[in-house]
Amino acid sequence: MDISTRAALTFGLTASGLVAGTNTAMSIFAVPPMLLAPKQVMVQQWRKLFNLGLVWVPPTAVLASASLGYVAYASRSASKRDFGDVGGDASRWKGIAFAAAGILSIVPYTLMFMKPTNDKLIAESNGAGHLAEREVKALIEWWSRLNLVRGVIGATGTAMGIWSAVGLR
């Protein structure tokens, strides 16, 4: 594996791990204390957390996926050239491709499963919602569970990428 492919692999795995870790940490460490605050503070804290994540998680996930996609492509080409399509090292590129798809899949997951909750909480944080405190708390708890799943999706892709990378040359 040449230096540019190794650099892309290192960046892709590191960035995907950071994305997975960020999502997981938001749910495990940031949300529980947030739920102790009064409604207006709680929803503003959630909005700040959401905005921070929005600024860097999606672009980082896309860059990680692109890097890992490049590595999968380069590794597939090298494995066909060096080993033929006979398995063993020749099939390691598939795990890297899985990692690329895994980290990128958090984007459609967010749009399909989290957007309705996000929209309600954003409306509430803008003062346009009229939810009771218990409803806001329940929405943030639900968001936290969905976000934790998003972190696990990213962590699974990252783990598969690391496992596959160990076998790449």
Automatic annotation (TrEMBL):
It comes from Ramalina farinacea. This is DUF1772-domain-containing protein. InterPro entries: Anthrone_oxy (IPR013901). The chain crosses the membrane at residues 54-74, 95-114, 148-168. It is found in: Membrane. It is a multi-pass membrane protein. Belongs to the anthrone oxygenase family. Keywords: Membrane, Transmembrane, Transmembrane helix. One of its GO terms (cellular component) is membrane. PANTHER family: ANTHRONE OXYGENASE ENCC (PTHR35042), DUF1772-DOMAIN-CONTAINING PROTEIN (PTHR35042:SF1). It comes from the Eukaryota.
